[in-house]
Amino acid sequence: MADDIRYETDGGIAAITIDRPEVHNAFRRQTILELNEALREAAGDDGVYVVVLTGADGGFCAGADITEMPNWREEMTEEEYAGYLWSVQNVVRQLRRMEKPSIAAVGGPAVGAGCDFALACDLRIVGPDAILREGFVRVGLVPGDGGGWLLPRLIGEAKAKEYLLTGKDITAEAAVDLGLAVDSADEPVERARELAAELLELPALAVRRTNRLVDPEQSFEEYCERAIAYQWECVTDPEHREAINAFSENRDPEFDRDYS
Hints:
alpha/beta; 3-stranded mixed β-sheet; Enoyl-CoA hydratase/isomerase; 9 strands; globular; Enoyl-CoA_hydra/iso; 15% strand; 6-stranded mixed β-sheet; 2-enoyl-CoA Hydratase, Chain A, domain 1; isomerase activity; 260 residues; ClpP/crotonase-like_dom_sf; isomerase; 11 helices
């Protein structure tokens, strides 16, 4: 049974909530273990089609809980520290690799690795009190959890370096203006669920393969080769046929799915 993470599924949506509101959902080692396990469960569950990641009490994740952090140099070897950091990075790694769309509902501070967890999701909804902060330099660290790779690809190198090198906040308004967030809402979790429901109305295989196909690291020819393979999978998918039939009959599609 998880102590730091709530994992709930309902109608094809998996909601993963970091549940440490007393410290603005900052994480400790146990949190990271549970978060990695929740993402593995969501990825492997055939009844899950969309993942919503958020924090308790309308927040998100304020990064590492400094009250739980050891004195790294005195209590850990370099190899032990590398193992710990790998597990934090693996949250980002799993979000990036997962074909199922993921939506970050950011209602409060998303700081440090918490910011990177939000950036690793496919889509972001922000609330009026949301901030995203790559504040590593302010405490004498580098963005070790993926932010230095993710942020330039999302908003461009120059603007990303401004935030990475100064550690200043990306406000909710700026996140929308930069295209970092797709929407702002007073209730970001509710809006994220609405967006998840929109995705559920579409052929699931096409959504997943489109999500995987968007890869800025691949060449155009690599894209085309993958697109051929993915398109054939979709052509032979029953949900494609149902979507075509529904379109021609001017009705909503009815997909045969088991959300249990």
